[in-house]
Structures are given as structure tokens and as C-alpha cells.
Automatic annotation (TrEMBL):
UniProt xrefs under Gene3D superfamilies: Tetracycline Repressor, domain 2
Protein name: TetR family transcriptional regulator
Top-level taxon: Bacteria
One GO MF term attached to the UniProt entry: DNA-binding transcription factor activity
Keyword line: DNA-binding, Transcription, Transcription regulation
Domain HTH tetR-type: 13-73
Taxonomic lineage from the root: Bacteria, Bacillati, Actinomycetota, Actinomycetes, Kitasatosporales
Keyword set includes Transcription regulation: yes
Stored InterPro entries: Homeodomain-like_sf (IPR009057), HTH-type_TetR-like_transc_reg (IPR050109), HTH_TetR (IPR001647), MT1864/Rv1816-like_C (IPR025996), Tet_transcr_reg_TetR-rel_C_sf (IPR036271)
Organism: Streptomyces qaidamensis
Length: 230
């Protein structure tokens, strides 16, 4: 790569980062539904046609922000995953990292787990980043299962066909009962975080850190993970 090409590449990276930073500022101030390429360009002192060379549409910019948010959340969860060895403690650490990231990045959390943006449908390109936390939780259950330290949750007979389909799609090496509990726990984890972040726990839960740790511990046991000795 020539010196000129390298300079252009660096400039593109810097301008792309500036566009995303301004878009995140607008998310915090106005919400995702009101994100506007023209407004971003105006705040950066760019003409709209120049910005379109980086992001051809609002949806392209939203997709980039969504992938960045999922990746940032995933990186936080993965870092926490490495700090605890027993499966039960790893589960707690990952869940606490999700909560911590959400509290530190409330507007980005709202972008990926809040109300859908009218007129926007997330493309398949967002799936790998979105799956990072879920794959960590599956991996924790898999490690416990391989170590013969994973219980088998109860499963209603009428749910077994769906449970077997979920297992085939998500984790064929795990019992369908476990995979069904994992999907439910994944949803409940984000429900707990969302209730705290969006104010539903106001005047209800006071010690939210202790409450959260207890709740995600119950989710872990529901999946079949066993807490170690204290």
C-alpha cells in the first residue's frame, strides 16, 4: 500500500469513527427513531453527499452501530468469562458483565434490546455479534455437561417437540431440557437488565446488585448448574 493509500485509509477510519460517535450522541439525545444522516452530517460540518459515501442510508448507519454495540457487550462478557473457573461462577460473572455494560451504555443497550426502530429490520450481518453472549452461556452449560456436573431440568411433555427443535438448532450436544432452559434464561437475563435500566424496578428493588446476583443464580440453577461451596 502506497503512502497516499495509507493516508486515505486512515482518514476513512477516522471519519467513520467520527460519524459513529456523533450518531451515538444523537441516539442519547433523540433516540434511534429520530437518527438522521443529514443531522449527523450537519453536526460534523459535512455535506450529506459526503457522508453517504461512508453510510449510504440511515439503516446502514444503524446496522453499524448495532453491530458495534453487540460486539462491545460481547467483549465485556467474554472478558468476565475468563475470570471465573467453575461453570456456576462463570455464569454469574457473564451475567454481571452484561448488567454492568448496560448500566455504562444505556443508550446503546436500548438500541439493541429496547423498542424496535420503526421501519428498520436488522440484517443477518448483525447475527454473529448478537450471538456472542448466548454462545458463552451455552458454552458454560456444555462444559458442565461434559464434566457430568449439569442437572437435567424438568420439561413438560407438550413442549418436547419444540425443545428438540431448539436443541437441534442451537446445541445438539446438550439435552433438549437444558437448551430450553438456556433460551428461557437468556430472555430472563435481558428482562432483569431491562427492568432495572428502564425504571421498572424503581420503588420496588433497592439493593439491585444483590437482587440481580440472586436472580441470575436462580437462572443458573434452572439450567442445571450447581453452585460450589461458599
Amino acid at each position: 500500500m502506497s503512502t497516499a493509500q495509507g493516508a486515505r485509509a486512515r482518514a476513512r477510519i477516522e471519519v467513520t469513527a467520527a460519524i459513529k460517535d456523533e450518531a451515538r450522541r444523537q441516539l442519547a439525545a433523540e433516540g434511534a427513531a429520530r437518527l438522521s444522516l443529514r443531522a449527523v452530517a450537519r453536526e460534523l460540518g459535512m455535506v450529506s453527499s459526503a457522508l453517504y459515501r461512508y453510510f449510504p442510508s440511515r439503516d446502514d448507519l444503524l446496522t453499524a452501530l448495532i453491530i458495534d454495540a453487540y460486539d462491545s457487550l460481547g467483549e465485556s462478557a467474554e472478558a468476565a468469562h475468563e475470570t471465573a473457573a467453575p461453570p456456576f461462577e462463570r455464569w454469574i460473572s457473564v451475567c454481571e458483565a452484561v448488567r454492568g455494560w448496560a448500566l455504562d451504555h444505556p443508550h446503546e443497550y436500548a438500541l439493541i434490546y429496547g423498542s424496535p426502530v420503526p421501519g428498520y429490520t436488522a440484517p443477518d450481518a448483525t447475527v454473529p455479534a448478537a450471538a456472542r453472549v448466548g454462545l458463552l452461556l451455552i458454552g458454560i452449560a456444555r462444559d458442565a455437561h461434559q464434566g457430568r456436573a449439569l442437572g437435567r431440568p424438568a420439561l413438560a411433555d407438550d413442549l418436547r417437540p419444540e425443545a428438540e427443535r431448539l436443541a437441534a438448532d442451537l446445541a445438539p450436544d446438550l439435552p433438549p431440557e437444558v437448551v430450553t432452559a438456556l433460551v428461557a434464561s437468556w430472555a430472563q437475563l435481558y428482562g432483569l437488565v431491562g427492568f432495572e435500566l428502564f425504571g421498572q424496578f424503581n420503588r420496588v428493588v433497592e439493593d439491585r446488585e444483590a437482587f440481580f446476583r440472586h436472580a441470575v443464580g436462580q437462572l443458573a440453577q434452572g439450567v442445571g448448574l450447581v453452585p460450589g461451596p461458599r
